[in-house]
# Entry
Amino acid sequence: GYNYEKYHNWDEISAWQSSIVAENPDLVSLTRIGSSYQGRPLLLLTVGKKSQTQKKAFFMDCTFHAREWISPAFCQWFVKEAVSTYGSDATMTSLLDGMDFHILTVFNVDGYAYSWSNDRMWRKTRSPNAGTSCIGTDPNRNFDAGWCTGGASSSPCAETYCGTRIESEVESSSMADFIRSRISSIKAYVSVHSYSQMLLFPYAYTYALPPNHAELQSLSKTAVSALQGLYNTRYTYGSSATTIYIASGGSDDWAYDVGIKYSFTLELRDTGRYGFLLPESQIRPTCEETMVAIKVIAEYVLANA
Ligand code: 0X9
Ligand code: ZN
Ligand code: ZN
# Structure
């Protein structure tokens, strides 16, 4: 079977997505929400029990930033755990009965392929920029949330380049179009990054706090303490601006501002010993503890959104 404790390249992940659908047709479906700049498909797995009535939905993306390899490993782990524990784990069963999980395992598919073939530390997309040989835009500076103000660069050579305009990257506009088209059902948004062991929520583009700040703070506290219960991994949590840094154009802030009141960014292991080069031996513990946090958030959203 598929080895979830190894990192996989895009071709392997792409084949895995088809297999998991073929093996679980009653629980999983595959939608192509667009194509990357270089023409690779942007593939969304939807996991949930089919229902006659309109279900709530939970949107989770992985691999905004190419070098954050633990991120797609987690999206794959989540889908594997969902299909393999539905019907036996009471929490997962009620989650999948009540909600659809839209999982975008590799958002930045061109960057991810490039991080395997050419540059392990690549971050941005792979679209060219006029007037320079510098390639790529930071997709997490490319959304309509204080776009290209603080913590983003208008220089195409910068790692935090915001792009020529809001949603200049086709990966950004494809994801945003999908979310806009399902906005009445999507109640939660989680973007999975690494590293630094943080659970972040809006805002990053301003120090202002959103209306349900206290609720996000208390839900985050519950989620990180449940996560810590497994292997004693310590997470910090709070609004992005006060917990990590000011940054504009993030997808989490955009999702919040279009009405998804439970919007988070997870920064997975570690805190810098290995950083982006997290050893494969840590895939299992990282994914198991992250599952705990996601299930806490999803249960809360299912009950309260
Ligand atoms: O800066 C980012 O995009 C994220 N950190 S990373 O090291 N993975 O690049 C943090 C994102 C937090 N949310 C926003 N900045 N909106
Ligand atoms: Zn990132
Ligand atoms: Zn497990």
About this structure: The mean pLDDT is 98. The beta strands are 28-35, 41-47, 56-62, 99-104, 186-194, 198-201, 236-239, 262-268. Residues 64-65, 68, 193 surround zinc ion (ligand 2) (CB under 6 Å). DSSP finds nine helices and eight strands in the chain.
